[in-house]
Amino acid sequence: MDLTQENTRRRLDTEDGALYYYEAGAGEPLILLHGSGIGVSGWKNFRGNLARFAEHYHCYILEFPGFGVSDPVAGTHPVVSAGASVLKFMDALGIESAALLGNSMGGVVGANLAVREPHRVRALIGIGGIGPNIFAADPSEGTRLPQEFADDPAKDKLVRWLNCMVYDRALVTEELIEDRWAAATDPASHASLAAMYGSKAFAAQQKMQAQGKFPPYWSMLHKIGCPTLLTWGLDDRQSPPDMLLLPMRTIPNAEVHIFPKCGHWVMVEAKEAFERVALEFLQRVVS
User: Which residues belong to any copy of the AB hydrolase-1 domain (predicted)?
Assistant: First the structure.
C-alpha cells in the first residue's frame, strides 16, 4: 500500500487540543520530529522518508502544536509545547521509550528530552540545528530570513528563505513555493513562527538569556547518555556546520556524518544517503 497523508493520518485528543500524527510500519518505535520555519509541518519534512523507515520500524511523524496542523497551546513557547507534546503523545500511545529522529528544532526537542527524560529516549538522530554558533554569524542567514517573514509576510521573502535551505536551488519548485505559502498564511502557523522568529519575540529571548534566567540547552548536552547520530549538510546556511563542534565533543556517545553539497534539509537533499546512514545507525543501536 502506498503511504499517503490521508491513509497514515491519525488524531489524538488531549486536554490541550488535538495532536495529529502519521503512522506506518511495525517493530520498534521511531518518532520523527519536524523543524521550525516558514510553512513547516511534520508531513512536509518527512513524507519522502516515511516509506523507507517504515520498512524497519513502527514510525510516527508527530505534528507539533501550533504549526498549522495540531492545535496550538496558548501562552506557551512553541519549543516548550513541542517537547511536552512528545511526552504526552508517548504516554497516550503507551510508548515507554523510543528512538527519536529530529530535523533542526525537532533535534533540539529530542536532545532536551534525552537530557531531562533519559529513560524515554533509546537513541537520537539530529539533522542540523543542535548546538551554538561558534564562528558563524548569530543569528544565521537562515534565521534572519524567517524573522523578516514573521514581521511582514511576503512571497518573495518565502522564496529567499527556501533558497537558503538547500544547496541545489532546483529543488525550490513553484509547487513547493505555493505549498509553503498556503501553509505559512494559516493564522496558527504564522503565530507560531512569530513566537519563535518575530523581532519582538527574538529580542525578548535574547534578553532573558543575557540575564541568565535559563541556561542554554546546549550547555546540558553532556548529559545525553543514549547513542546519538548528528547529521549535517556541509552547505547548511540555517545551521552552519561550526554549530556541530560543541555537540560532537560534549555528547558522550555521538557519531557524526556530514553530507557534501547539501543544505539544511538533509533528509530531502541527501535522501538516499541519509536514509542509509540513519538506518545503519538505528539497526546497530536499537535492538
Answer: 29-269
